[in-house]
Write a structure and sequence with these properties.
Structural class: alpha/beta
CATH class of the largest domain: Alpha Beta
Number of helices: 6
Distance between the termini: 177 Å
CATH superfamily of the largest domain: Leucine Aminopeptidase, subunit E, domain 1
Number of domains: 2
Strand order of the largest sheet: 1-6-5-2-4-3
Order of helices and strands: HEHEHHEEHEHE
Number of strands: 6
Largest sheet: 6 strands, mixed
């Protein structure tokens, strides 16, 4: 081999070596670039995952916040409902209390008011009012009348009013006079009362004359009529007869005497100053027939 050929061979070998080095450098650079690209992708992936995690965390926080707000709203709504329920219950209780008071007041207004008569034992006297008449719980009403006392007063006056003046009509026509010893039976539709018994006591001036006998006569008629629960309107002016009621009505009639109407103060125009007759010994009431 000539010297020139040897040099050419060395140049070729050197060039190949340089090319190999260049290729290796390129390969290394490519690997480095690929490594950087992979690292960049990995970093981007991590960044994306981090963002996704942060987004999930934010969404979770938002959901938890919404859930807390929803719970708070539900709690407020429940508290509002509870408060409204309490308020409604309070109003209902107040309404019931007001209705109870109104009923009690109405009952007090309509219930017969016991009058203070000074009589021993429980008083049977009640004020004569339309409320009392309408609430009568008796089956018989006994009315005493004087022949010369007009218009009707006291319990008889209120009963006549509730009967649309029927008693006054009988008095005007003479069907009832109030003469001593007169007794008249009338049908009645006032409250529970089925009948009225009218008893004539004669003139006002003779009210105390034989008053004990007239009371005994009334009790006897009521017993024979089988009266079981009676309301009595004494003949007006009845104030002078009050002292005889306990011995001559309450004792012989017992529980069958439900009430006696209070004497009409407007009818007491002249007081009888004669002493009240002494009460005879009370006998046992005869059995109702």
């Amino acid at each position: 081999m000539s010297k020139s050929d040897g040099k050419r061979a060395d140049d070729v070998a050197a060039r190949k070596a340089d090319e190999k080095k260049a290729d290796e450098k390129k390969a290394d650079e490519k690997k480095a670039d690929e490594k950087k690209a992979d690292e960049k992708k990995a970093d981007e992936k991590k960044a994306d995952e981090k963002k996704a995690d942060e987004k999930k965390a934010d969404e979770k926080k938002a959901d938890e916040k919404k859930a807390d707000e929803k719970k708070a709203d539900e709690k407020k709504a429940d508290e509002k409902k509870a408060d409204e329920k309490k308020a409604d219950e309070k109003k209902a209780d107040e309404k019931k209390a007001d209705e109870k008071k109104a009923d009690e007041k109405k009952a007090e207004t309509q219930a017969p008011r016991k009058a203070d008569t000074g009589l021993p034992g429980k008083s049977l006297f009640v004020d004569a009012t339309l409320h009392v008449i309408d609430a009568l719980d008796v089956e018989t009403i006994a009315i005493g009348l004087c022949s010369d006392v007009r218009p009707l007063g006291g319990g008889a006056g209120y009963l006549d009013w509730r009967m649309c003046g029927r008693l006054s009509g009988y008095l005007r026509t003479g069907a009832i006079t109030g003469a001593a010893g007169e007794k008249v039976l009338l049908p009645c539709g006032i409250a529970a009362a089925k009948r009225i018994l009218v008893f004539g006591w004669g003139t006002k001036a003779s009210l105390l004359d034989n008053a004990t006998a007239r009371f005994a006569w009334m009790v006897d008629v009521l017993n024979r009529a089988g009266a079981q629960r009676v309301a009595v309107a004494l003949p007006e002016p009845a104030g002078i007869l009050v002292g005889l009621v306990d011995a001559h009505l309450r004792v012989p009639m017992g529980d069958r005497l439900a009430m006696v109407f209070v004497p009409d103060p407007l009818m007491a125009d002249a007081k009888d100053t004669r002493p009240i007759p002494a009460a005879p010994r009370a006998a046992s009431p005869p059995a109702a027939s």
